[in-house]
């Protein structure tokens, strides 16, 4: 009765701690593997595919160890952790699921290490409605939507991952999302490497954001956040765009070798730009226009092919006297 949702394998209750290895959990009319109500267990080397609902559900303090599972071609999400679900997921291959590869919701807090999450028909990882989670050293690539989505007061840690070749952006934080985005290699995505919008306020630090087909970091629609000590380079559009009422703090970043502007404030883009090294852009290092009024101080801005700081169309530049423009 505890598994009213229906599932091929249901593990429920305190003390439930099976070992399940080398099983094929496929073609189910509902969930493949459902772990709930403080259940634990070790689940290794299983094939979990083509299930009508999620390949794996972890709910209500379920805390399994899930290693080397192949979770693919699901008609829903690959793995869904919710309602305080936990779990340790290692070296799983999660791909080609109809919805996200890995979804975290409602105080769930999984640890996901060295997995490959790829070719999702929507996004790679979707954290929403106060989800948490630690995603560490995963490869997240070739998803149709953003590699990582964070929204609605969620606060995951995204650390040491490679997030690349997405059909949209790398990391997308929107609708009051938070999160620590740290030491990731984010490259080759069709849209911005990191996009922050609609009152989201993540900490973004020590990432490499490069070789994108769009801009590096795009902060818009009242986006916020602390963006520090990242290296942003070789992107097709601006290294960093700040627009439409956004107020991020950009500190101690290296922003260089882009094919357009280094940092671009426009349409009431505000915030703080300090102690950055901004160099070797095809256009100017910093451009400020149309009602933007950022505080800009102690940056080193050099090698821009049409100037260091350009201010026009009602842009303001506070404290620019402190710039060191070579």
From TrEMBL:
Pathway assigned in UniProt: Protein modification; protein ubiquitination
GO BP, sorted A to Z: regulation of apoptotic process; ubiquitin-dependent protein catabolic process
Keyword Zinc annotated: no
Organism: Seriola lalandi dorsalis
Protein name: Carbohydrate-binding/sugar hydrolysis domain-containing protein
Domain Carbohydrate-binding/sugar hydrolysis stretches: 38-174, 190-312
Keywords: Repeat, Ubl conjugation pathway
């Amino acid at each position: 009765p505890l598994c009213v949702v229906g599932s091929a394998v249901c593990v429920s209750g305190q003390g439930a701690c099976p070992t399940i290895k080398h099983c094929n959990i496929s073609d189910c009319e509902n969930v493949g593997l459902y772990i709930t109500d403080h259940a634990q267990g070790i689940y290794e080397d299983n094939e979990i595919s083509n299930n009508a609902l999620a390949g794996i559900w972890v709910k209500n303090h379920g805390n399994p160890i899930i290693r080397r599972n192949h979770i693919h071609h699901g008609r829903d999400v690959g793995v869904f952790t919710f309602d305080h679900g936990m779990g340790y997921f290692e070296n799983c291959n999660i791909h080609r699921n109809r919805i996200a590869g890995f979804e975290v919701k409602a105080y769930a807090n999984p640890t996901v290490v060295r997995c490959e999450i790829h070719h999702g028909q929507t996004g790679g990882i979707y954290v929403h409605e106060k989800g948490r989670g630690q995603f560490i050293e995963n490869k997240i690539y070739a998803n149709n939507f953003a590699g990582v989505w964070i929204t609605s007061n969620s606060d995951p840690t995204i650390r040491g991952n490679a997030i690349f070749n997405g059909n949209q952006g790398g990391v997308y934080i929107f609708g009051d999302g938070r999160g620590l985005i740290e030491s990731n290699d984010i490259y080759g995505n069709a849209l911005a490497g990191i996009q922050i919008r609609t009152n989201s306020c993540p900490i973004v630090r020590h990432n490499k954001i490069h070789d994108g087909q769009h801009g590096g970091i795009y902060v818009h629609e009242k986006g916020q956040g602390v963006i520090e000590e990242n290296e942003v380079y070789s992107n097709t559009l601006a290294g960093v765009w700040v627009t439409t009422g956004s107020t991020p703090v950009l500190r101690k970043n290296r922003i260089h070798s882009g094919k357009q502007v280094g940092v671009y404030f426009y349409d009431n883009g505000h915030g703080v730009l300090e102690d950055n090294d901004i160099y070797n852009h095809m256009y100017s290092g910093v451009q400020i226009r149309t009602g933007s009024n950022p505080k800009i101080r102690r940056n080193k801005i050099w090698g821009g092919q049409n100037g260091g700081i350009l201010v026009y169309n009602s842009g303001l530049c506070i404290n620019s006297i402190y710039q060191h423009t070579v």
